[in-house]
Specification:
Layout: E1 2-4, E2 11-12, E3 18-19, E4 24-25, H1 26-33, E5 41-44, E6 68-70
Antiparallel strand pairs: 1-2, 1-5, 3-4, 5-6
């Protein structure tokens, strides 16, 4: 998952493929939990499509082969 938010460096985080509490896919879960205000963007992609991606880099690079994008800054 890659995120852009106003006033902070772009960040990335590796997530699992489902939410254990709701039993829904991470992609679907992100669609209802990600911020949607001006300047925000959340993108998610499969780890297998982004081999070698550094989630600790700051600012984080954008993902390849994005499966879901939420927010007006995407």
């Amino acid at each position: 998952m890659w995120t852009k938010a106003p006033g902070v460096p772009d960040l990335a985080q590796e997530l699992g493929n489902f939410n254990a509490l709701t039993c829904e896919s991470t992609f679907k879960w992100l669609q209802h939990t990600s911020p949607t205000g001006d300047g925000y963007c959340t993108e998610a992609a499969w780890a297998s499509d982004n081999q070698g991606y550094n989630t600790d880099a700051e600012p984080a690079k954008r993902l390849k082969k994005v499966q879901v994008a939420i927010g007006p800054a995407c």
